[in-house]
Amino acid sequence: MVFWWSQWVFLAVNIVSLPVYLPIIAVCIKEYKHNAAQRSFYLIIVSQGFMDLGLMASYFIFATLRLSEFCNNFFWTYKDYYIASWCFNQTYVSAILRCFGVLVISFQRYVSLCKHGHPIEQIINSSHRWVLPLLQWTVPSIVSLPLLVISNATFIAPDNLEVLLDRQTITLATSMTGLFVAITFVLCFLCYWIILRFLVKHRYSNSIALKRERRLYVQMLGLIVGFALLFVFYVLQFKFSLRSNDGPVFTMRVVFPVVSCFFSYVNAWMMFILNNDIRRKVFVLMGFQVQKVPGSVNMSTSLKVTPVGEPTRF
């Protein structure tokens, strides 16, 4: 088997990004404890972070190590114990989990900004803030059940651990995942479009909270770009899978680790680069900077829209 170039990119991106992502998750956990106004947001971010890390670890074990040929004996010996099937299923399941997670984040921002004071906002951000993280895991898990029952995958040979499966099953898995990705992408895009309209409508407001929301909107755009890449990936994958399992389909599988890495780490890097408070707290946590003034990350704590010229109190 050939160790694809994309696997080297996958390893390099993880080596560079994990030292950034892990402290950001730790900072968000601390902010969840101390920033009551944004607990729902940080809870979802932390949940998505653990999801990303788990999926990255799974791909490393069942794809990167498998292609490296260091563990051929293990994979071949236990190929009938769902190992081969998970090597096939994990790419589809991970896409479903990630996409719905990003949709949950987008929906939370939409409700917090555009439905401030509405009963649904109180439910999501105050009285039942565990609802969205619970849905973040349960809904994609239920959607993935038809994929998880696929257990007839195998490997070609002990020295060639390429997954072998019939074309109908591959087309079914690709179409199911592609449909779910398309639906969640449209809903996510709709949330951000409504948020953008809201911010443009109140662009002359003196509200400090809205100014912070504008910066947060730019920060979250990375997720939309990553989502769009994954959407295009599965559209092309579905189109190619209708013809054969070779050629373009194989090329798309090679590209998947790069798309997956970008989708997982883009939000962490956007937070680190564009959010000064997050970056400062990460440096403090890592010992690169001394914390001078204690306090929570300056995310929006109030979403009240104030006309120009009217004094605002926070």
UniProtKB/TrEMBL annotation:
Q: Which organism is it from?
A: Trichostrongylus colubriformis
UniProt keywords (A-Z) are: Membrane, Transmembrane, Transmembrane helix
Query: What is the name of the protein in this document?
Result: G-protein coupled receptors family 1 profile domain-containing protein
Residue intervals of the G-protein coupled receptors family 1 profile domain: 13-275
InterPro entries (UniProt xref): 7TM_GPCR_serpentine_rcpt_Srv, GPCR_Rhodpsn_7TM, Neuropeptide-GPCR
The record's annotation in Pfam families points to: 7TM_GPCR_Srv
Q: What compartments host this protein?
A: Membrane
Lineage of source species: Eukaryota, Metazoa, Ecdysozoa, Nematoda, Chromadorea
UniProt entry tagged with the keyword Transmembrane helix = yes
Span of the signal peptide? none
Q: Which Gene3D superfamilies match?
A: Rhodopsin 7-helix transmembrane proteins (1.20.1070.10)
Write out the transmembrane intervals. Answer: 6-29, 41-62, 82-105, 130-150, 170-195, 216-234, 254-274
**What SUPFAM superfamilies does the database record attribute to this sequence?**
Family A G protein-coupled receptor-like (SSF81321)
Annotated Gene Ontology cellular components are:
membrane
